[in-house]
């Protein structure tokens, strides 16, 4: 695969070295000249490259700081004591009862008492789309109880899955996008815990440079390369359109239009 990119600091990503290892296929080209460099150490708005066509919004700047910045930003708070469902007990009951069947007062009372108290900071979720693959991340931010200038940033890869072509968020081979998360509950399907709506898609960041983020810790450069290569290769595949007429379809199935569909008279 050949990568077209701008010269200069900040436009090289962590998987670019594979061009020299795996070689360059001139037929598979990744045009990354409109890349969005992400540097968590920069101040508000400095990640946006105004010199090249780039439509950076306040939402994109805000999301970058929420997901990657290791210093306190506006909106960060200390951890708070909140209640969460005991998801394991909820899922256990979901396997035994349907939503239309009453659990009974004893079971309902047990479910109500399955809350647990935990300390939690600000939680954010985002999805990294690489070709036909989605990687869902969770980020927790909170200020230290003893030092207001110290921020704790916890992050992790929650789920990775392959998607279909109609599920893609962006036309770009790589993009970042905020996503919603629905915790395990009695009323929601387990497979629907992550979702992306139209408002979230408007905040997507196409072709981000991930070199300075923590994402390389979770996604191998070879995996990134292969996913991008697969997607760009699929764009070269031409869709086969059946241009045969109705008569040709009938004949291809072994029927004769003149005699196969006539009603025979009873003798």
Short recap of the structure:
This protein has 7 helices and 13 strands. It is of the alpha+beta class and 267 residues long.
Write a structural description:
23% of the residues lie in helices and 24% in strands. With 267 residues, it is of the alpha+beta class. The chain has a domain at 35-79 and 121-218. It has a five-stranded antiparallel sheet with strand order 8-7-6-9-12. The longest helix is centred in the C-terminal third of the chain and has 16 residues, at 221-236. The radius of gyration is 26 Å and the shape is extended. The termini are far apart. Mean pLDDT is 79; it is low at 50-55 and 184-191.
Helix content estimate: 10-25%
Overall mean pLDDT: 79
Unreliable stretches covering 5 or more consecutive residues: 50-55, 184-191
Find the count of extended strands (DSSP E, 2+ residues): 13
Structural class assignment: alpha+beta
Major beta sheet, strand line-up: 8-7-6-9-12
Largest pleated sheet: 5 strands, antiparallel
Terminal residue distance: 72 Å
Taken in chain order, the helices and strands follow as EHEEHEHHEEEEEEEHEEHH
Shape: extended
Radius of gyration, CA atoms, in whole angstroms:
26 Å
Number of H- or I-type helical stretches: 7
Assess the beta-strand content as a share of residues. 15-25%
């Amino acid at each position: 695969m050949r990568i077209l990119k701008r010269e200069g600091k900040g436009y090289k990503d962590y998987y670019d070295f594979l061009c020299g290892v795996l070689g360059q296929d001139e037929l598979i080209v990744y045009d990354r000249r409109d890349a969005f460099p992400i540097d968590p150490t920069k101040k508000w708005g400095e990640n946006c490259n105004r010199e090249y066509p780039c439509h950076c919004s306040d939402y994109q700047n805000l999301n970058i700081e929420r997901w990657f910045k290791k210093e306190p930003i506006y909106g960060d708070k200390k951890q708070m004591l909140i209640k969460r469902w005991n998801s394991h007990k909820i899922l256990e009951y979901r396997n035994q009862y349907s939503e239309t069947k009453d659990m009974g007062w004893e079971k309902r009372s047990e479910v109500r008492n399955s809350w647990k108290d935990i300390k939690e900071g600000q939680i954010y979720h985002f999805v990294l789309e690489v070709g036909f693959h989605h990687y869902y991340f969770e980020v927790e931010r909170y200020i230290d109880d003893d030092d207001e200038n110290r921020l704790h940033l916890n992050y992790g890869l929650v789920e990775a899955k392959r998607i279909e072509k109609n599920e893609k968020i962006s036309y770009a081979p790589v993009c970042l996008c905020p996503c919603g998360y629905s915790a395990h509950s009695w009323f929601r399907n387990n497979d629907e815990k992550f979702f992306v709506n139209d408002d979230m898609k408007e905040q997507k960041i196409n072709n981000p440079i991930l070199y300075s983020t923590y994402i390389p810790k979770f996604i191998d450069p070879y995996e990134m390369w292969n996913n991008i290569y697969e997607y760009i290769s699929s764009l070269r595949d031409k869709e086969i359109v059946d241009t045969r007429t109705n008569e040709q379809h009938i004949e291809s199935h072994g029927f004769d239009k003149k005699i196969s569909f006539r009603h025979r008279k009873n003798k």
